[in-house]
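1st attempt posting a full record on here, be nice pls
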Amino acid sequence: MKAWRGAFALLALAGCGAEPMAAQPTLDGKPPIVIAHRGASGERPEHTLASYTLAIEQGADFIEPDLVLTKDGVLVARHENEISETTDVADHPEFAGRKATKTIDGKTVTGWFTEDFTLAELKTLRAKERIPRLRGTAHDGRYEIPTFVEILDLLVEANKGRDHPVGVYPETKHPSYFASIGLPHEAPLLAILEKYGYRGRAAPVFIQSFEVGNLKAIRAKSDLPLIQLMDGAGGPADDPKATYAMMATPAGLKAVAAYADGIGPNKDMIIPRGAIGTLGDPTALVHDAHAAGLKVHPWTFRRENYFLPLADKGGLNPAGHGDLAAEIKTYLRTGIDGLFSDNPREAVPAVKEGASR
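the predicted structure (as C-alpha cells):
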C-alpha cells in the first residue's frame, strides 16, 4: 500500500509541475477555524444532534446547520427541503400523498418537502445516511430532525465553562424560494439568534447563503458576520445575470465586501484539480479576497478516497480513508481563514499542526 501511495504521489507532483507554495497568512493573522459541515457528518447522519454533539467533542470551532422551514414556519436543519435522501419519509405510508414535484431554483425536484409538513409531523421521521455507499447505514433510524432552537440549546450546554465557545454557522437554504411561498428565513433566524445572545460582529456566528438578496436583507437588519457562498459553476438563484465566476473576480469581490464579511467557495476555486485528480497551482482567489477584506472558508474536506486528490488517496476503495490531513495542509498554505469538513476528528489536528508551521 505504501508503494502504491508513493507512486501516485509522484504522479500527482508530476501533474502539478509546481514548486511547493510559500505559506500565506490568514486575513487577520489568527489560526484558521474548522467548521463541522452538517456536524461530524462523516461519522453520523448529517444535521442530527448526534452529529453536532460529536463534532463539538472532536474540537470543531463551529457547527453548521443548513436551515429550511416547516409548514408552520419553524426552522429545522436539513441539507435540502426535499428530504427523501436524508430521512425515512418514503417508508411512512401516511405521508405517501405528500410526494410532489416542484421547481426549486429553476430545477425540477420530486419528493417530499419540509414546507408540506408541520414540525410535529417531521418529528415522526428519522434521519438516515445521505451517502450510504461510502459511509454505511449503522446509524440510520436513530435520530430526529432537529430544530434550530434545539441546536442552539445543545450549544448552550456544550459551551458552559468554555473560554472559547463553539460557534454556529447556519446556512439559509433556497431563501428566495421560501420567501416566494410566504416562509422567509430572515425574521425567524434573526429573532432566534437575538434570543440566544448572538449580537454584533464579534458573536460566534456566521450566516451563509448561496444567494445574494437574502444576505443583503440580513445586512440591512443586523451586523452579524455574513458569508457569500460560491460554487465553481452557475450563479446565485436570485440573480440570473450574475455568475460565481464573476463574483470571484477582484471587482466582484469588492462588490461582495459591501454586504458580506467573507466568502465560502468550492475548494476547487482555490486549487483546481487536473483531469486525473491531481492538485494544480493555486488561483489568486484567496489573495484577491483578502485584498477586498474578505475571509475565505472553502468547502468541503472529506476523508473518503472518493473525494480526495490523487496523491492523498489511501487505496482503490472509494469508501476507504486517505490522507485528509495532507490535503488540508496544502490548502492552509494558501492563507485560507477556515474550512468546512465532514471529519473534525481529522481536520482539527491537521489545522492545528498546519497553522503552527
